[in-house]
Write a structure and sequence with these properties.
Layout (H helix, E strand, L loop, with lengths): L9 H15 L1 H8 L5 H13 L3 H13 L6 H13 L3 H13 L6 H13 L3 H13 L6 H13 L3 H13 L6 H13 L4 H16 L3
Helix pairs in contact: 1-2, 1-3, 2-3, 3-4, 3-5, 4-5, 5-6, 5-7, 7-8, 7-9, 8-9, 9-10, 9-11, 10-12, 11-12
């Protein structure tokens, strides 16, 4: 390009970085593009490091952004929160989520779904439920994914009463049970064939599944 008098712009560099991250890994991309300072560029590197489980490198790049007066956007925070949970640093992940509000960023549905899903997987159902209810107060409403994620959390920890309540609520809002939710319900019924609550849960789940077929 330079030989023809052409200069690569940020879009070109970002496309090259995406390709290099996939082909050679984020370390290779960082080596070639570490002097580039743009929010999208840094986001690509952070995402690449997170996908490879390199949280420390992701956080280093995150702090470099702040040092260079670049404001990390919501995509960067969502990526880091998810990765931090994945490597088992629960308190650090929750702190990152709290920082969104301090930085004047409004969590979106994706942010809330990440928090709810990861907290449920850790068995922190009370915390997940508080965030679930908090969503509506911030102007974002639980979507189909949100309901299925939190219902699955309660099912995995054998709280069929709460799962039934949430499935009823989900049906009322026109959402449907996904394959994983149905599988967990069926497994519960198989293990507790005489449990009336389990039977009710199965009935509710079938209604939730039927919503998507109408």
């Amino acid at each position: 390009m330079p030989g023809k008098g052409l200069i690569a712009n940020n879009f070109t560099y970002n496309s090259l970085m995406h390709g290099l991250c996939k082909a050679k890994g984020p370390q290779a991309a960082y080596k070639f593009f570490k002097n580039l300072c743009a929010v999208v560029t840094c986001s690509i590197l952070i995402d690449g490091f997170c996908k490879h489980g390199c949280l420390d490198m992701s956080l280093t790049r995150f702090h470099e952004m702040q040092k260079n007066l670049l404001r990390p956007d919501l995509i960067v925070y969502n990526t880091l929160i998810d990765c931090t949970f994945k490597v088992g640093k629960l308190e650090a992940a929750k702190e990152l989520f709290s920082r969104l509000f301090i930085e004047g960023l409004q969590p979106d549905v994706c942010s809330y779904n990440i928090m709810i899903m990861r907290l449920c997987k850790e068995g922190l159902l009370d915390e997940a439920f508080k965030i679930f209810r908090k969503m509506e107060g911030t102007g974002y409403f639980p979507d189909n994914c949100t309901y299925n994620v939190i219902i699955q959390g309660y099912l995995r920890y054998n709280d069929s009463s709460m799962a039934t309540q949430l499935i009823d609520e989900m049906v009322g809002k026109g959402f449907s049970a996904d394959a994983t939710t149905m599988e967990l319900v069926i497994n519960l019924v198989i293990n507790k064939p005489d449990d009336l609550l389990a039977q009710k849960l199965l009935s509710c789940s079938k209604r939730a599944k039927d919503v998507n077929l109408k």
